[in-house]
Amino acid sequence: MKTYMAKAQTVERKWYVVDATGIPLGRLASKVASILRGKNKPTFTPNVDTGDFVIIVNSDKVVLTGKKLEDKYYRYHTGYIGGLKEIAYGKLMAERSDLAVYEAVKGMLPKNSLGRTMIKKLRVYKGAQHNHQAQKPEELKLF
Fold first, then answer.
1. How far apart are CA 48 and CA 113, in angstroms?
2. pTM score of the predicted model
3. Staple 51 to which of 6, 36, 102, 122, CB 3.0 to 4.6 Å?
4. What is the pLDDT of residues 100-123, one digit of tens each?
């Protein structure tokens, strides 16, 4: 029996719109990362980017369960000595919820050049409006 190996030139990509209203952040990120990777397709090949484009709208309505809004922190480094910064997720979700969703999805993709090309197919918007109507995206129900 032969194994199908996809080639990057022959991959057909679709555009999907995901409404993040009321969905927990981690569950949303894992499902979106799976679609970006192409694991929902029968032509999935681990070493080829076979995934689709994903548009996430209403990122400001994503839910964090438990006490994560107070206890969880987003940490980053400025590059300078002693430049470790941290922001509580309560403040981050109020000000930059699109960044929180983007980083959650990015953390669930491979940590190599393949993952860096996959994350470029993700678009995150705070509100319900996006500017990708020309691509004719399909509505995707995750839950």
1. 11
2. 0.93
3. 36
4. 999 999 999 999 999 999 999 999
